[in-house]
Amino acid sequence: MSATVDGDASPSDRMRAVRRRMPRGPRTGAVPGPAGAACTAVGLLGVAAAVLPRDRDLHVLAWEPPGAAVPFAAAVSLGAGVLLLLLAPGVRRGRRHSWRAAVAVLPAGAAAQFVYRHSEVLLALSLALLWLLVRHRGGFRAPAGPLDRWRAPAHFVSMGAGSLALGLVIVGAHPRAVVGSPGLTDRLEHVMYGLFGAAGPVVYTGAAGRTVAYSLAVLGLLTAVTTVHLAVRPGRPAGRDAPDDVERLRSLLRAQGGHDRVGRCALRRDTGVVFSPSGRAAVRYRVVSGVMLAGGDPVGDVEAWPGAIERFMDVARDRSWTPAVTGCSATGSAVWTRETGLHPLGPARPAGPAGPAGPAAGPSARGAGTV
């Protein structure tokens, strides 16, 4: 038998050793959070690049795009920036559909910013974020979040107000090209008409008029399209059970008898349920602002509680929800804490055998309330 000496190592072994010592970058599972923040930053830069008038003296290329392409590029940059701002929360939570949309939007926004601004910095930032998303695509597997009937109306109101405010900034961003001195009422009327693709009372000289018109039309189009998308998007809200799940839960409650103090609340229609692999225990939950909130102790056999809790945590991880529990008994809080590592909140000591009922929150007290 012989031992390998470091000085006698082959070139391939030395190369592998060098690769092991090289930095590997962030873990795939840790990328969605920073990627969401980067989407917000790139989106804000895209909006600013589209709204602020460009300076021809500072951005000069050997090739100048046609006159009609410059206002169109400004509108595309604005639309891409707004879309990235809307997609950033989903990217931060690892949503697969948000990742796909961001990967599609980033190249278009980068090209539009380069045509309008001639800025290599904005182009490099967009392409770097695109590379990060593609390189760590395995970290974006969560499905779309739950829907509710007020999501589309609330989005329409907030998006409409934001488009109106941003439209006023766009209309006033070209003071040198404005003909006359239009007041606030005229500017507001111009924004309202522009969101619907019509001409308003404010008149511009040169290409500024087309830039403002295209940008306002894009804002109006995005408001309408995103609202319709939320209104017609398929999918059932979280917390709706299949009929067989309800029957299985009724069987567990009948077998458990009156031991569970909140058993009569376990059959509410606005909650969801996950079962242990053996089917002898279940956890009821609701999803509130991205928090998967379990209500009380698991239902069923105490020995099967760990399996139901493990399944609960798997669902929260797969859907990028923050797990939390409320209304536990002393026994239930002890099991939740032992099986999941959730931190108990409040003055009670839930791990003690005689401690009063207390809540258990997510990985930290602050994290449980994070949307």
Q: Summarize model confidence as the mean pLDDT.
A: 77
| SS elements, strand count | 6
- The helix/strand order is HHHHHHHHHEEEEHEHEH
C-alpha end-to-end distance? 61 Å
Outline: elongated
Helical content class: 40-55%
Task: List the domain count as a whole number.
Answer: 2
**Discrete helix count:** 12
What radius of gyration results from the CA coordinates? 28 Å
What are the key terms here?
disordered C terminus; 6-stranded mixed β-sheet; Aminopeptidase; 371 residues; elongated; 6 strands; alpha+beta; 12 helices
Task: Describe the protein's architecture and organization.
Its main location: membrane. Pfam families: LPG_synthase_C. This is DUF2156 domain-containing protein. Residues 251-338 form the Phosphatidylglycerol lysyltransferase C-terminal domain. The chain crosses the membrane at residues 29-52, 72-91, 152-173, 212-232. By secondary structure, this protein is an alpha+beta fold. The protein folds into 2 domains: 28-232, no CATH class; 243-368, Aminopeptidase (3-Layer(aba) Sandwich), CATH 3.40.630. Helix content is 52%, strand content 8%. It has 12 helices and 6 strands. The chain has helices at 11-21, 32-51, 69-92, 96-117, 120-135, 151-171, 184-195, 208-232, 243-256, 305-318, 330-340, 365-368; strands at 272-275, 281-288, 291-295, 299-300, 322-328, 358-360. Strands 1, 2, 3, 4, 5 and 6 form a 6-stranded mixed beta sheet that branches. A hairpin with a 5-residue loop joins strand 1 and strand 2. Helix 6 packs antiparallel against helix 8 (208-232). The protein starts with 10 loop residues before the first helix and ends with a helix. Residues 1-6, 57-62, 347-359 and 361-371 have low confidence and may be disordered.
